[in-house]
Design brief:
2 copies of one chain form a homodimer. By secondary structure, chain A is α/β, with parallel strands linked by helices. Helix content of chain A is 50%, strand content 10%. Chain A is built from 13 helices and 6 strands. In chain A, strand 5, helix 11 and strand 6 form a beta-alpha-beta unit. The two termini of chain A are 37 Å apart.
């Protein structure tokens, strides 16, 4: 059954001065925005924000990534300096950037765009034990939710999710396997671009972690056992944004893993999610398919940081603008 | 052989603080921008413009479109009033809009954003005779080139192509068939959404026009015989932009037809073209394949007006911004 605001959006599109259905996916997006806001036309996307949640991972000790853990800290400092890919793209697409230190091993210097969860400096090794306790995981969810709330309080009308965390595609693969039921082999990918030997190791680590965790599919315990602090924080962002009727734009595999957790915790979150792009990482496609989301962009990205979500922001903004601003057929020549 | 500015772009991408190749298509785009500008990093895309060329078509008399020809005039007046889909999206994506009346049957009222070619009020019926003389066609090309030059003089650093013209997917199909060698059957589509009977008629009209025109593949005579004034004008925009080393962003089927003509007239134009999106219209895909262009977006659009090109502008802008603004790996933690 279609939502009545989506129906209103479809009717409004049909009356605009353009051939019916001629804006394709843009029309579906606008209808979703109307459903989310419970008003048609939907509000303008005038103040979109990106939250990059960053964390480190005990499983890094298993050798699943060629990068040293310090890169997480250095990249967060680069976000603060406005010198990372996410900053360049955010500024080209008109998006405000905030960073959440959800649990970095070596905490970055203080900066006005960083908030700190203050829970722990990275997770435990999910290969050998639960990455977080349920209390730690809950605290990370709440830290993400709190930052989302603050950004919405100061005007954010769309929240894009981004991530930073060396080795974090390993917990993502584990979460995606757990929540979708797909095998470790299928959902584990090369992340930043690891070699064949490291990929084999990573698949084994993910499969072992899933075996260690067992059959428990309780969302919170699964997220705590297999996830990262940034995944939990991003799930919290999605939960808070949905509660405030603010659309959530997903990026790559790490944000998809967080979205699966958020939807498992609260199925109603699904209606607030928009898939920004299709990451090259196989787990991203598995997760999006499980959620039934069709991504806006497919540009062969695999960077994270929210870059793919950012690139989709002007398209979401345009979808709302068409429904708000375009003349009706009956107004032509009037 | 790869261009040396593209190689410089690839090298620069490799040194940035991100995994190698992780920005996928964005990196290819940035390399093309460097090649176009003959400098790396390429200039920022700070002042993109859209030129919507509008015209009417003698072949409308054959019944190939359900819309009255007056819609061309009314939609151009809607562009001027800022009330069309192109305006809403242009404003969401930060693009300036100009309109060229390349030859509208019932000329719209004067307005600061319109330029008028002043050649003729619509083409002749391409089903029974050449749509334009070569002189008329040349004049339309020059009118497009002149507007492109003026926009570049006043700062435009990227030009998106857009079109408006009731029945213009019929000349587009004829041009695409002629320039790609594909059959009328394959490249003729539903345009704004015609029914099966009208589609059959349209295919016959296109096939008849191709038979009338014969084997002559001289680019100018082919464009004059089978095209529209807006196609000629948009070919002129592409030629002038390429001559000024300004990237040209294609929209749907009508702009692809114009691009085929421009590349046939001057093969070097190809390097300046960026395909904004894949239109639903089959001729668009046939034309893009012939040109070897892979579109940035695939959002099932079939509106024209430059809408699909506009939606790709922030992605092109982002590609340039990454190469210009992102820190090198060697700068991390410095």
């Amino acid at each position: 059954v279609e939502d009545r605001f989506a129906l209103m959006a479809d009717q409004r599109h049909s009356g605009l001065a353009k051939p019916q259905g001629s804006l394709g996916r843009l029309e579906t997006l606008a209808a979703q925005l109307a459903t989310i806001a419970r008003v048609c036309p939907p509000p303008a996307v005038g103040n979109p924000g990106l939250i990059i949640a960053a964390g480190d991972h005990g499983v890094h000790a298993q050798g699943v990534s060629p990068w040293p853990q310090e890169i997480t800290t250095l990249m967060v400092e680069s976000f603060c300096a406005g010198r990372a890919s996410a900053n360049a793209i955010a500024s080209a697409c008109g998006v405000r950037v905030m960073v959440l230190d959800a649990g970095i091993a070596k905490p970055p210097a203080d900066h006005p765009v960083i908030r700190t969860a203050g829970i722990m400096n990275g997770t435990r090794d999910l290969h050998v034990e639960p990455a977080m306790t349920v209390d730690e995981c809950t605290a990370a969810i709440l830290a993400g939710a709190a930052l989302a709330d603050r950004m919405i309080d100061t005007g954010a009308d769309l929240l894009a999710l981004g991530d930073m965390g060396i080795a974090n595609t390993t917990p993502s693969a584990a979460l995606i396997a757990a929540f979708t039921g797909q095998s470790a082999d299928l959902v584990t990918g090369r992340g930043t671009g690891i070699d064949d030997r490291t990929l084999d190791l990573k698949k084994t680590v993910v499969a072992d972690a899933l075996a260690r965790h067992g059959e428990d599919r309780d969302p919170l315990r699964t997220l705590a056992s297999l996830g990262g602090l940034e995944h939990a924080a991003l799930a919290g962002v999605a939960l808070a944004a949905a509660a405030r009727r603010v659309p959530v734009l997903l990026d790559g595999v790490n944000t998809v893993a967080a979205a699966l957790a958020a939807v498992a915790l609260c199925p109603d979150v699904l209606g607030y999610l928009i898939a920004g792009h299709r990451s090259v990482e196989p787990g991203a496609s598995a997760g999006l398919a499980h959620l039934g989301l069709e991504p806006i962009l497919d540009l062969e990205l695999r960077l994270g940081e929210g870059t793919g979500a950012l690139l989709a922001v002007p398209i979401v903004r345009s979808a709302a603008a068409v429904l708000r601003e375009v003349a009706g057929l009956d107004e032509l020549g009037a």
